[in-house]
Amino acid sequence: MSTLFDLGLHEDFVQRHSETVEYTRRRKCPCGSTPDGNRSNLNCKACRGNGFIEDTPITFQAIVTGIRTQKTLLEMGVASLGDLVLSAPPFLGLQIYENDKFRVIGWKDAEPYEGEILRRGVTDVDKLKYIPVTMEKVYQVDPFTGAITTYVQGTHYSVSGRELTWLTSTRPEPGMSFGVNYSPRWEWIAYIPAADRHEQGDDLGQLVLLKKLHHTTPF
Question: Are 20 and 106 in contact (CB under 8 A)?
């Protein structure tokens, strides 16, 4: 007995109602003392200390909706408000795995973000979690005096991709904490193994729960 779905029409529906997503396959990096991506070498040049190496990103079309349309996931405690559900097309031709990364192309570039507290390393470069669209403030505080030191982009530091590069000796000392406020474009992580959907043996496309990157990893 054939499937009740017309896969061609289903594919057309996905294409008409879809968003363009950038997809990055992520794999555990074996840089740590044990073969576990959660115990990575913080100085690893391959994974930048986050425990995952990344393939070259590709793009495809998928339906992306807010978690409000999947109330059962909220009721089970699997998801929370702000999460997304991605419905992959049936003829995608690739498998999506847990911890793979997504960006939604076409959504507004800059998203509100509470920022990060970073600890200065020993080189001129510190790593940000996201790629900034707009930089707002880089600053350090003295908890004993209450003094706030603000660093100026183009004078004290520059930003390229995720890298914040210090340009002068006016910078936080190695090991000291400093704050970075910026507006990024969100990156999303496939939080649980993607659910395969089939009917009568036909692949209807995977269903994937997405969480913001900073909700899934401390790095």
Answer: yes
pLDDT digits (tens, 9 = 90+) for 74-113: 545 556 667 888 888 877 888 899 999 999 887 777 888 8
| Distance (Å) of CA 94 to CA 23, 39, 59, 172 | 11, 28, 12, 45
Where along the chain do its domains lie? Answer: 7-107+185-215, 116-184
Task: Return the number of other C-beta atoms located less than 10 Å from residue 16's C-beta.
Answer: 9
The strands making up 157-160's β-sheet, listed across from edge to edge, are 125-127, 163-166, 157-160
Looking at domain 7-107+185-215, which CATH architecture does it have?
A: Beta Barrel (2.40)
What tens digit of pLDDT does each residue of 129-158 get?
899 999 999 999 999 999 999 999 999 999
CA torsion angle for 69, 70, 72, 73 (degrees, to 10)?
A: -140
Q: What is the largest CA-CA distance in the chain?
A: 76
**Cα–Cα separations (whole angstroms), residue 18 to 13, 99, 106:** 8, 22, 11
